[in-house]
Design a protein that fits this description.
- The structure is a homodimer.
- The first copy, chain A, is α/β, with parallel strands linked by helices.
- Helix content of chain A is 48%, strand content 17%.
- Chain A contains 14 helices and 12 strands.
- In chain A, helix 2 crosses helix 3 and helix 6 runs parallel beside helix 7.
Chain lengths: 304, 304
Amino acid sequence: MSTDRLIDAILQKKNPTVLGLDPQPSHLPPEFLQEAAEEYGETLEALAIAAVRVNEVLIDALHDIVPAVKLQLACYEQLGPAGMVVFAETAELAKAHGLYVIADGKRGDIGSTSEAYSAAYLGGVQFGDKFLTVYDTDALTVNPYLGSDNLEPFIKDCERHDKMLFVLCKTSNPSSREVQELPAGDRVLYKVIAEQISRAGAKLVGSYGYSAIGIVAGATQPSAMRVLRERHPGLFFLVPGYGAQGGNAEDIAYSFDKYGRGAIVNNSRGITCAWQKSGDPLPDAARRAAIDMRNDLQKHIIMV
Amino acid sequence: MSTDRLIDAILQKKNPTVLGLDPQPSHLPPEFLQEAAEEYGETLEALAIAAVRVNEVLIDALHDIVPAVKLQLACYEQLGPAGMVVFAETAELAKAHGLYVIADGKRGDIGSTSEAYSAAYLGGVQFGDKFLTVYDTDALTVNPYLGSDNLEPFIKDCERHDKMLFVLCKTSNPSSREVQELPAGDRVLYKVIAEQISRAGAKLVGSYGYSAIGIVAGATQPSAMRVLRERHPGLFFLVPGYGAQGGNAEDIAYSFDKYGRGAIVNNSRGITCAWQKSGDPLPDAARRAAIDMRNDLQKHIIMV
């Protein structure tokens, strides 16, 4: 069961961190950009080459510390088709290093279209006798606005191909409340969404008690995390917002159960852009930042 | 103003139809699949080749009838990086034939990530002195679940680069009501979303009185369309659900104002898969179906 694999990986490294590999051109070290521009000119292909080289350095430097990576699809899409090659290569390299790979796409559409998104990231495409894997990732983030027939194709592929799903519930951005905290009957919207997801994932619970259908619950919302954790013991949380967005380890501890399980905390810029602050080379700065984050989380979350 | 360009194109062809180019492998004519498989084997690349050839035939057969095309990103994404090349080539070919191009991605994320999605489809990426266009489309569909800081980067690019946005409001799928019709205070959620979008787009109104920030309002929800049209005269509607999903022209007429403006109606399979029912060659069957749909809409919508 995919959720068990993720939890095992976290426990083995005693680190519930997911490394966000989001190659925004403006966040890539200048020497990588210069080198690529000299080879390919100031083109999207050059940005893609710089991105994949940076990702290679980061995976090499961090694979023994972090259990998982999260690839923000927007950052790859904005580099054109070459960016999707980088996405595929990064996912493959991360898997080869034993890392769990989350595609962060926040996809969602009517049922027949969700099938196509699910085929891209969780399942595959049938062509004659062949079943073709497109992007070999372990999990995908999705958006709940279209309701259950949007989610079903993804859930089916989670069952069939042993994958995970993280459905947006309470996100980390300031304006999330404008929609997610609207009163929905006697509760607020994100709590209704959490109920819906909890029910939808009840049949896919692994041996640690967590479902393959988890949620996104932002680190900037400690009271929301606390309520959701208490009410939905089977929902695994993907927690964005640590560091740059203001979430801290003490608050994030609410996302975890008494065994120190049940969540994984994303950090992108805090690790991948640590070179900007320290002046150290990319791999050294990233490794230092990843170890600091692990130690910070370990202070507040006791994993057994 | 981008909205004016779309409305002009509709009025010129007296046809508020947007042709959905959604190359699902199972919906492509077998002869295209066979030919591609002979050349490239049973691979994603072969599916991509078949998809682009089908799109070329459809654009060639229909560009004098329909004013716009909508490309469902999921269908291109599931063909891997080669699928995104097909997406780019199809968008380019459609533009070269004077068609308005809508990228249907239903994207949405926290602000900094939405910037990257917006760069991919509406704006571009800065690299040194160069501003690089990624996919040259006229409009993008987005998801409202993350609130206004998600929408802002897209709206900025609409203003800066003369583009349009269609925000999901009331979708055409059966389970849309599970979330979109939840009571939100004294109204239901999709009406609150419509208010938010209406306010956000108020500064980008074109000469026909329609904003560059429109909504998706499904043809399967006639009462919703009617209420939204009355309450929000400045919101332009992208209307999915005609034909295959059950929406008919009489109901859809509620999406239009008294001048027969204010909406565009999508049809994908009803046109692109018409060969399955009629047995005619792809271009002939598609052309017949597109003309039938135009005539059907013209019966109920008087465009002046």
